[in-house]
From TrEMBL:
The keyword Cell cycle does not apply. Residues 18-171 form the N-acetyltransferase domain. Gene3D superfamilies: 3.40.630.30. It comes from Algoriphagus aquaeductus. This is RimJ/RimL family protein N-acetyltransferase. Keywords: Transferase. GO terms for molecular function: acyltransferase activity, transferring groups other than amino-acyl groups.
């Protein structure tokens, strides 16, 4: 599915292959398709509906307005296709490491295994440094080996495993691994 280019084509920051921006209304169809894919969402409670995707995009816009960062919309620069999201969140759930800035990602299957997530995550850490953020956390279900590999690739260090309180009703997802990097 082709992504329509934004009218301004203005990115907050770029890598050699990726452009990072805030969310636009025209992102909904592509991002909803990514979020509806059971394989992409296998480490989440369930695939997202179109409405849940819109709510996530709206939350990210508010987070960007409040904190200057969010899980950004990420385009492949060559084609202007939306590949998914990579960025910085703000976590406040009950844990001994929260509240904290976290880094996370979700990209469509078409773009897996091309180094795009690691490239984008590294750019987000650089952006976090520019914002004066001193440390960033990331966590994933212990069986999400691809995400854990990205954490290691971008220089994050293992802290410990924990039971994620918001996944108490999902025993197969509840055990998570926590990584951290000082900036």
């Amino acid at each position: 599915m082709k992504q329509l280019p934004s009218m301004t084509n203005t990115y907050l920051f770029e890598t050699s292959r990726l452009g990072f921006r805030t969310w636009q209304n025209f992102d909904l169809d592509v991002f909803a398709a990514i979020n509806a894919d059971p394989e992409v969402m296998r480490f989440f409670q369930k695939p997202y509906t179109r409405e849940e995707t819109q709510a996530m995009m709206d939350r990210m816009q508010r987070l960007y307005e409040e904190r200057g960062h969010c899980y950004f919309a990420v385009d492949l620069l060559d084609t202007k296709e939306l590949i998914g999201t990579i960025g910085l969140g703000w976590k406040t759930f009950e844990a001994d490491f929260t509240p904290c800035v976290d880094i996370g990602w979700r990209i469509g299957k078409k773009w897996w295994n091309q180094g795009l997530t690691s490239e984008g995550a590294q750019a987000c850490l650089d952006f976090a440094r520019q914002l004066g953020i001193k440390e960033v956390f990331s966590y994933a279900t212990v069986t999400n080996h691809a995400s854990i590999q990205v954490m290691k690739k971008i220089g994050m260090h293992f802290c410990y495993e924990f039971d994620y309180s918001e996944l108490k009703d999902f025993p197969h997802l509840r055990q998570c691994t926590l990584y951290k990097i000082a900036l």
